[in-house]
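Why show two proteins at once? Because comparison is the fastest way to build intuition. When a single record is shown, students tend to memorize it. When two are placed side by side, the eye starts asking what differs. So, the first record is below.
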Amino acid sequence: MLLAFFIALLIPRAHSTTLTFSQFQELHSKTADMTSMKVCWMLGGDILPVDANIPEKGHKCTATVDRWSSNAKDAKEACASRIPYHIDSAQYGTKTQCTFLINLACAEDHWQIHGKCYRLHNGKYTWAQAKAICQTGVGDDVKSQVAIFYSEALSIYLNDMENIGAAWVNVPNLNDYFTNPNNDHGGVYIQGAAYKYDTRQGSIMMFKAESKHQVICEYTPPTTMAEMFHLAKVYAQIYPIGVYSHGAVFPTSSYVRITQTDIIAYNGKFTDKYGNEVEKFDASGLEKKCASIGNILNVKSYPVSGHADDFNAMKSLLKGHQCYLTSSYKNDGFKKTDYRAKSGNNSLEGGIFEGASSDEYCNAHSLSMSTTERLPTMAATGACALCAMHQIHYEYGPCPDKPDWIDEVYRFERPSRVFCHYINNHEVETRADAVVRCESFGASLSGVDSDPEFQGLAQKLSPKYPPGNTVDITPHSRTVYFGDANKGAIRIDDHYWLGGISPCETDCSGGPTGVREASWDAGVAVNTTFLNNYNHDGHPWNLLPVTQYVSFRNDFNAFHIHPLDHYYTKNGSIVHYEKMFFVCGKSAHLTQSTTIKSALQQTST
């Protein structure tokens, strides 16, 4: 999923200093995700703060695209047609200067397009299998799904992702493309396989749900303060969004009400001990209203609670209305301190509001906010609800559980993420089958970014052959078969499949010839210098006129590159590395660390 067609569009310009991508990444890994750095670097841009005085506003990249534009509108369109980010500004001329905002962050094995994170799974799946693969996601708190093909314009940016042939996508209204009377077909996005189906790139074709294809998955990354500032600016005329230290709030455009759900008997009567009816209420209507507006803004949104901390943190933002309805509500007549609220997955109960006298609890069933105070309110009262966009902080947790067929798991903390290697020391597979097995639990064939990471991984590699396997040892070589060579067993020689390819596809400048021979696959590693400069004993590290794939030979402590299904002669014998052991890799799951919910800072457990 790196740069293919994208490279043709985004020809590198001279940077303020000449940097390789690895150097650029080291400089900006704390301020931008992998996709943003790649886009900015390929455009020859620089990453700078949006506002040096307000770090929470995030970062931006200013770069140039090779397109002439004659006015401001044309310049903005030129930038938007090439760069799938919020375009903050554009300057027209013989070349168009674009400044785009880097507000969100995708996992390293995903590609960011207009606030969504996309990943290609390169195995072959039925529609049902594709949905299951996508649901493996990137973490317990971040849900993934089959990518929604919402517009033909999306194909412009999907074209930047490499290796898409024909992949399942979710087309919300298939009638726009084909009839599907039996609901037994699904939409497949066609890119690299366009020639095969005699159609143009970027098309949607219908296939039976039992047919097998790649799949493109997507998830929505967590909202950040920088994104909130941007949304407040963009939607100011529609939703007056206020940004403060804990997040952002905005009122609904229409009135809502706390709803009554039941009248409950008290001691056999429908009244409490004071003779008042015992009504029950909930705030689900407010939750749905805030969530629907959040969907428009592409953020999670919940009604604020009526807690004093809410009010004190945001009261300076409340303007123009007599009151704003919150998610806090009260049941059971005169019962005191019974206000409760639900905001997202957080429930608050008790201590939300203490009135000056018991009279404030008699007929009040909800709690609203004005610019000066919190007010107990009748349930039937209609008012604008106050919604909050929540800033959710994530951190990398433990490695996801391993499948039963994985022998070892090695967790390593890289500068920008935590990466998990899943090692199979006892089974050998073709590369294609190894890819499918890795993708079955949301991983890919693995890669490494540094010598410390590699040395830790290498200690876990311990090939296990079946009893009676053939081992030939000479003074100059060691040949190992996965079984008895006299019974047709295949030669392995302690090789492990890894996620790399030759010719090099990313960050390829360097080496003795000026071009590196191989690079890591998208999402598993980026340090091509380490891959190409490490030990390659035992096999030529040379470019060939065919595609080769990266492996690691354990007994030689060396990276190798081999073509698939390629026989060659070595020391008078035919060598065919059809199958190898393999290492899968994926980022550790993202888990919520600190969550801002309704302006209440809470630590998730």
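Second record. Ask yourself what differs from the first in the token line.
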Amino acid sequence: MVRQAQRVEIVKVAICVWLLSATALSFEVVLTRLLSVVLHYHFCFLAISVALCGLCLGSYMAHALQNNANERFKVDLSWVSASYPICILIVPVALFKLLLPIGASMTGNGAIIFIIASVGFITMLPFVSVGFMLSILFRCYGRVSGTLYGADLFGASCGCIIAIWLLNALGGINSTMTIALIASLPSFFLRGVFTSASGIGRWLSPAVLVFISLFALSNMLLKPPLIDIPKLKQTHGILIKPLWAELAEEGQHQKIVWTKWDAFGRTDLVKSVLDNSIAYIYTDGHNPSIMLRFDGNLNKMREWKRFIGFLPYRLRKPERVLCLGSGGGLDVLLALLGGAKHIDAVDVNPALPELMKQFKDFNGGIYDMDCVRFFVCDGRSFVKRSKRRYDILFSALTQTAAVGGIGVSLVESFIHTVEACRDYIEALSEDGMLVMLFQEPKLVLRWWLTSIAVLHQVTGKHEKECALHTAVMSIKRQAMLATPYRYIVLVSKSPFSEKERLTMLKVANDLALEALFIPMLAETDPFDLVRTGDMSLREVINRFSSLANIAPATDDSPFFLDLHVGIPFTLYILLAFAVLLFFVFIPSAFLIERKRFGKPNMLYAYFSIATLYFGFLGMGYMLIEVALLQRLSMPLTTPTHALSILLASLLIGSALGSVLSQRFKENERLMVLVSLSSGLVAVVGVCWFFFVAKCVEWLFSFGDLIRVLILSLLLIATGVPMGMPFPTGLRFLSASCPTLIPYSWGVNGVTSVLGSIVAVMLGKVYGFSYAALVGSSLYMLIALASLVLSRINLSRHLAV
């Protein structure tokens, strides 16, 4: 009977751990989407990372409050478990009703400091609660850490899928409230174990559940809802996304007429009250795409032939055109005006088909025309999988830089890398042309250098000869404030003929365009220096190195939009915060432990080993995870679902490894298990370093379903050994020094945030493959140290 009761208790605790982990990761994903709609991506990344440090703070609080090592630690979690869903519910209310409006109205650097500090603090609260409760549960049930950690990881993998489903079904704010509702359930499973079964504790959980249910239901049913994204009149231009700032301007005549939330982001259709001929599609409040009023009569759209984006159609008459990032259909309309017979339009936003269909009376049903095929897919993935050859491959303002939808990672798309440019050129017909439109001049130069480098690789020609395949033009400087379509870069698979170059010059004069580079006819610095051979690409890059990083980006380091030389200052701030948190709590935790231990030599040994062991594990796991998620997301068609599938697979593998580790008995063989599993992770990480690029290329030879299956199996296999060392270490502490379990959770949490930051830094400077290599090195250190410890029998040695 006693054993049966213990098993029931462990099952209840495992379910509670599953719920806590699932809701925490779901909330992290939804919170990322909420902040990405309002804040520019680097500030969003900073706020999310600060919030996740709450897991560490909760663990340290549990470490400070626990009893002595020889006593079974008991604590009433009634109030903590009840505060967790309330904290989740408070986040959107505080963000959109209080903090963001105040921060947006502030001036100078004070606005940045206030936004990061206040948003980071309020979003940290739910993670503090989770960190505290998980630390307590593992502290008390450390001997079954393999089972509990398996539940933790499996809950996190389920959280990935739950978040995607909620965002698609309910949107960002309502998803938060639903997660708060689910987060109120763990307290029911803890009743009688860690919460009071009588008194106020008996009614606390049901009261919280009822309150959140009523609040969430009210927000869903009321029009307008209680909580929504406000108009933010900002005085600091780099904080808030343009849509919300523009809507808050006095005298503006725009209004949102259609909105859809999904896992990809928030899509808004904005119209002007004064001009009914044009509408703008905003994705996450940024990068508006144009949707024109069109009734199917191309003669009425002739004015758009004077648009800079129509230039390639003045040079050649294409039959097949591919539009990447087609948005509201402007690119397709230009292709129709240019006489294209077959047009493939590709956009990654899954909300576009519904939007375009609902407003087909406005846009003329342009995506439903017989000569047009529309695909919801990542542009680069589509090009890799397509067997067609195109006369023009057109992309206008296709820019993506965002916080990763899953986990703490800063990612960019693979649209503008060296490998992408090679894929585009290979997808062209013999006389095909690659066309890119940009807003910023430094990005123009960076893409032009990328094109020259790829043409040099593909054709074997000298760099100065490759320049004859290219042309660069822009609108006049005084017209740039009115439109983001400012620069155009043309890259032809064959050199531009003299007739085409003369046509370009004539068009530039007729349309009042600036001819920045037309080979041998109009050449400006530094384009002319490359064409004449006076400077190589490397010399041009070095010349601008003090101003911006214009070196071609690669798939391994795809930070095309990030022009910072070296590492952005934002990452240094975040790294300093995480390091400070780490080193502030180490001495404070050490002082607490000194009061509990009678033997200083035991304290120094256990404390040092726990800090290094769990610190290396946290950083190593995240370095490998971020590197794999970044590199392996491209073969899947949609980036949001790609990250969900990849992370869920890795976490499921780790959960299986954790459960398997529980089968090993608690003796010196635990260290052997750690050594073997860590060594295997190190080997796998090195293999990914050398073969990930070939693996990605190989995967494109399969269909969508097979690719997903292969990637999932590979990541599950990778995750199995990655899930073994952490619970094994907790089981070792449970048998020897259980008071260090909450502290170890905290160390692992803060070093996980550190690992994600370092992964992005390494990815920016060296490439994400090197992040995986560094993570593998940390696992190898753990493997070697564990092997040594297993030989000297650590438990007996420290007991002397």
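One difference worth noting in the second protein: Residues 566-800 form a domain with the Growth Hormone; Chain: A; fold (CATH 1.20.1250.20).
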